[in-house]
Amino acid sequence: MTSPISTHKHGSTLIVTSNNPPVNALGAAVRQGLVAAIEQATGDDAIHSVVITCAGQTFFAGADITEFGKPPVMPWLPEVVDIIENCPKPVIAAIHGTALGGGLEVALGCHYRVAVPSAKFGVPEVKLGLLPGAGGTQRLPRVAGVPKALEMVTGGGMIGAAEAASIGLVDRLIEGDLVQHAVAFANEVKDIRPLPKSSERDDKLAEARANPAIFADFRKANARKMKGFEAPELNIQAVEAALAKPYAEGVLDERRLFMQLMSGSQARAQQYFFFAERKASKIDDIPAYTKPRDIRRVGVIGAGTMGGGISMNFLSAGIPVTIVEMAQDALDRGTGTMRKNYEATAAKGRMTADQVEQAMGALTPTLDFSALADCDLIIEAVFETMEIKKDIFGKLDKIAKPGAILASNTSYLNVDEIAAATSRPQDVVGLHFFSPANVMKLLEVVRGARTESDVLVTAMALAKRIKKVAVVAGVCHGFIGNRMLMPRQVEATKLLLEGATPDQIDRVHVEFGMPMGPFQMADLAGVDIGWHRDPTRIENIRDALAAEGRWGQKKSAGFYDYDEKRRPSPSPRVQEIIDDFRTREGVQKRDITDQEIIERTLYTMVNEGAKILEEGMAQRASDIDVVWVYGYGWPVYRGGPMHWADGEGLDKIVAGLKNQEQRMGSDFSFSQLLLDTAASGGKFTR
Ligand code: 3HC
Q1: Annotated active-site positions, please?
Q2: What 8-state DSSP symbol labels residue 600?
Q3: Ligand 1 geometric centre to CA of 247 (Å)
Q4: Using a 6 Å cutoff on CB, does residue 100 contact ligand 1?
Q5: Residue 470, pLDDT score
Q6: Does domain 500-585 have CATH number 1.10.1040.50?
């Protein structure tokens, strides 16, 4: 097999090139090739310097994640980085694309780093539940300083080349041919001794030592962001070791902490999720050569919260939008909100004033429905009523140009029925955005019975363009996400009658790692959502709350009472309502354990997920996990409901559900797939 690493001489410089598509991951062959190249340079007196560079779209994007969990193949990456740093001749990293994780660690092992202005740098290991384990936690603070290193190792984000240069992570920014300039740079530095080694630097550590509170302050400031995750804390501990110990001892701490994380369930879940997210974009039964349709202008019907948020996604990606409303005041209100949201982003420094104008300038607000005629994709985002949707799609059918994609943002309704209102059901698809639509990463792409393959491929490609993660769902009530929410909601409400409090149920969910529990979510979204609006018709607890105007946070009262700072407290009035209902329904009050809450609200979700799978409404179990992590904030360190269930043991899930089966009554029925998979000792996701 040919090595992904090749070398050639340019004068007295040895140019070492990695060609390991798609991202130059540092797999075994790359590591072996790098070591051989350094040995070649060391043994050749005619070589005075080495340039390490990568072919293709990027510099090394990190260790090869597919090797994790398999028997290790030597040399290890930490050893490779040490060998590079100990090369007696200057080694220069020539960086383009993204130098990530182990890739940045290789660059830190080099004596110098040069980069093109578009290059990006980061240590995203924390997102895989890990830490930079090839000396990165020890070298990065020495080169970039402790505050920046802490931010990078715990956040996992990327910094640009200009910033990298300003903090000393990059020695020179290069305009023009990267390798040519890197060789010129190598010639400039070839005689400088001693060679600058990242592991031997102390200047930036000394700066940090002057501020003994640096770690405590960092932990405090980031406590909320890091809550529940193991990796950020261990990343901090590794950087602490860099400050407290000599390099040779610090790397031993790094290794120990790395192994601790690698053997834990969070790293397994987060690495699983990395691949789950990438798999989600693939549609198994559509050939890879299927060409997407050209989308140059998007139309949005409805300028409410959803329509506005949806439009912003396209405008931010530079795609012009025509937005249609029925009345001028609604149109003005909608576009005003969009501008306000953009301006708030600009105020936080995440957009320039020019970019705000550019985005808003690409928006065409109108009351004229026929203005949608030149749109390539039209998304309907109006009330969740079948009759209204059918009426709109019937009208669209008459004015949309041939080949235009007609999409509904429905969150529950039957996309096939909507498609049947047109003469072109093959062009109709569901595009279910999650609120707030300009923020949430998830997009459910609902595949109708007659949706054409290229329509789906277009939707998936477009999702990438607007930086969303798309998952394909089949036509069923609530698709993947909301369908699984239903059993959770039903059981949570029944548990109130049986003796649990909203506070207890929400606490169990928050302790599990969800951003909020079912009742906190109801208060945030609005208790009145989907309410029949008849205060005399009180059929359940929710109706009773809605009838009293307890519509949630917006009314300072819902399942909780809220003070002027929107801080919740348990509501005696809500407890009264619950108690009344209990009496009315003749339900016996009893103590509810936290375990029962888990079994009835989380195990039931897993059961529903299994039904979705067996009905073919999701392509794969990992897609369900992607929906729940990106749509509802399921803690990624638990991988998603299906991965979590696998970890718990499907036999335990089945046993828990059997425990509760009688209490759940006719609201519950087992998924045969769950029963069968549990019985055979199988798993959904591995
Ligand atoms: N190892 C193995 N495969 C990888 C990989 C890696 N580090 N990074 C990406 N890939 C694969 C993806 O799975 C995908 O495969 P597919 O085509 O079969 O689905 C393919 O490369 C392309 O990836 P993307 O779809 O993500 O391509 P993008 O162009 O959108 O993004 C990227 C490129 C920014 C490099 C992104 O892939 C990425 O962020 N990769 C992960 C980087 C990372 O986490 N590095 C740290 C690794 S851990 C480490 O280094 C440990 C060390 O400290 C010891």
Answers
A1: 105, 125
A2: I
A3: 29
A4: yes
A5: 98
A6: yes
